[in-house]
Design brief:
Elements lengths: L1 E5 L3 H11 L6 E5 L3 H10 L4 E3 L2 H5 L4 E4 L6 H8 L9 E4 L6 H8 L5 E6 L9 E7 L5 H12 L2 E5 L5 H9 L1 H18 L4 H22 L3 H8 L5 H11 L2 H12 L1
Parallel strand pairs: 1-2, 1-4, 2-3, 4-5, 5-6, 7-8
Antiparallel strand pairs: 6-7
Helix pairs in contact: 7-12, 8-9
């Protein structure tokens, strides 16, 4: 399988790097107008094909992955259209807010196989939560093919396109929300007398433990919370103080605002 990635920015570059050291058999080609970005990729992974001309890399690709800003998707697609073979190629966009109908109209072919994917920045370390949707033209084999790409870079879920906005808020924006909690908890640790770097490491391990505990048990978070909130204890006092200052509501309001 050959994947042609148009765009070597934060996400396009992260996907290329993630695939280059993944365990799937894939040929990677990347196009970008910025030669310095291409040079960096080539220096890190000699097997990656690079070009400043998108039309060159898409010609023999199985998957054409568009990783440019949303307002550039239309001109980029129309620019490479003469070099595409829509009868066999998958068009995959990771541009937020650009729907499948718009992409299909720009391609000018109602039979085109079009996918959307929303990863997050942890894709570069194989820990992204990526959401995938597609049009009715996609076969089960093609859905599996795209799923294989993103499962090699973390975890992937195929969802209805109408849920893409919510999924973006929950996990693409959500990684920033999680990091804001890490920062806040670290600052709290400093106020309690712990050195900043130590506090950060302690918080990270605590979160890692919480994640693995929930995955191992399959429990609702409240089940695990109940195990550490003894009557009259310090944990319930801390939780109640956080709720008094709007912890849960702030998270929900933030997610809805992002959507």
């Amino acid at each position: 399988m050959k994947i042609a990635i148009i765009g070597a920015g934060n996400m396009g570059g992260a996907i290329a790097r993630g695939l280059a050291h993944s365990n799937i058999d894939v040929k990677i080609a990347v196009a970008d107008l910025a030669q310095d970005k291409l040079d960096e990729l080539k220096a890190e992974y000699a097997t990656i094909e690079v070009s400043t001309d998108s039309k060159v890399i898409v010609t023999d690709a199985d998957v054409v992955l568009v990783a440019v800003k949303p307002w550039l998707v239309e001109p980029v697609l129309k620019g490479v259209l003469p070099s595409l073979d829509l009868s066999r190629q998958i068009i995959l966009s990771i541009a937020a807010g650009v729907d499948i109908a718009a992409i299909t109209s720009w391609l000018g072919d109602e039979k085109a196989v079009v996918f959307r994917a929303i990863p997050n920045t942890a894709i570069s370390i194989h820990q992204s939560m990526t959401f995938v949707s597609h049009n009715a033209n996609a076969t089960a084999q093609q859905v599996t093919q795209v799923g294989t790409i993103f499962n090699a870079l973390g975890k992937a879920a195929v969802i209805e396109e109408r849920l893409m906005g919510a999924a973006t808020s929950l996990c693409s924006c959500g990684i920033a929300f999680a990091m804001r909690y890490v920062r806040a908890a670290t600052e709290g640790g400093v106020e309690l007398g712990i050195y900043p770097n130590d506090a950060k490491q302690y918080v990270l391990q605590t979160l890692r433990g919480a994640v693995e505990l929930l995955e191992a048990t399959g429990n609702n978070p409240e089940v695990e919370i109940d195990k550490v909130t003894t009557p009259g204890g310090i944990t319930i006092k801390g939780l109640n103080a956080m709720e008094a200052h709007g912890f849960t509501n702030s998270v929900i309001v933030g997610l809805k605002a992002s959507k």
